[in-house]
Here is the input.
Amino acid sequence: MATLSGVETGPALRRRLLVLSAATIVLALGIAGVSLATVFDRHLERRVAQELQVKLLELAGAFALDEDGAPVLSRPLSDPRYEQPNSGSYWQVSDAAGAVLRSRSLWEHRLRHDDPRGRDPEAYETEGAEGATLYVRERDVRLGQGGAARGFRLTVAQDHAELQALGASFRGDAVLSLAAIAGVLLLGAWAQLALGLAPLRRLQEQIGRIRQGRAERLAGVFPAEVAPLAASLNALIDRQEEGVRRARERAGDLAHGLKTPLAVVAAEARRLEASGEAEAAARLHEQVAQMRAHVERQLARARSHGASAAGGTATEAAPAVERLLGLMRRLPRGEDLAWRNAVPAGARLRMDSEDFAEVMGNLLDNARLWARGAVMVSVVPAEAGALRVAVEDDGPGIAPGLGGVRGESAAPPGEGHGLGLAIVGDVLALYGTALETGRSAAGGCRAAFAVAGWVGEEA
Here is the structure.
């Protein structure tokens, strides 16, 4: 199975729908063909039974006894096949001793009388000469007067092979007709799929144009079923562009903020070099060069990629927090604090893992600077479909709203330069939320934010 940008590519939707349509059409027409053949056979049998009844009445009307009491036909019967040997149409008159009169078409054969239903007035099947199957209809009559009356059985028969030939001919014609109908339906299904999937094909083409840089948005009129998808994709593009813009602003702020300190350090290195401290000056020059190279590299990466918010990804909060706590313990004052991870197992946030690490890293670092002895991280349910992440310490607390303004430092005097909580606010804004500050249960600072997420299996 092929992959496309990490996504497995299965069978084409059009092919699957076409195969399903073809299977449905063939199954439906197959059932229709069998049903039609069955109905035709039943109607044909009823028609033959009716014809046999007419022939039986004709035979009964023509059958009589002559002056000597011998059975005769008073007039010829209308079916000319009676005079053709083995024509498939037969009649016979029998008494207790056997056949007394019969059609020329029977030749040397006789009709059997083995109706298992006891001479039911309806037609039935029996075996004829040379293994043939016959449709038979019979009637008992009595001719004569008083005690001299004699009983006779009148029988008419039709060869079943004629019915089979008609049935086979009908089924052949039906197969051809149903095959033509199937072809038309398959063509219609193909046309329906081509027209129905055209908006998705147009959507795919426009996405390709965006990826190639030939368009910026999905444009055009889409059906009601596809329009929400196109709108969501446009919203995702807007959010990504906003993230890139913010990333470039942060990179520009960082470059601007480092420019003056680096210039001062470089000037100090030159002063040391002029005063004869060449070794110290060389070390400073080396560090300044590394910092400038690092800044330029990060600026280039920001210009080419930027940063975007998560698009349907989820971060498992508990292990991510545990990794950050491990880093905090190795920083100054970190080993002297009690770090508590109260995030429930299975808590997942609709947030990019890097963005979550940046937000939590800044909040935990701020708590490390302020806390007196303990820091706790917790995740609890908030409004429907959201979780609230909180970092609490036992320090002196923080003024409400301080963390949301760029340039205002939340760190103790001499530590930090006020960007940490401002960066947190920028990242959270990408997710439509904001940092909330207040007093913790221990009297220190509580920094919290709400973001979409769930605990356990996603609903």
About this structure: The CA atoms of residues 217 and 320 lie 35 Å apart. The first strand starts at residue 2 and ends at 4. The chain has eight helices and 16 strands.
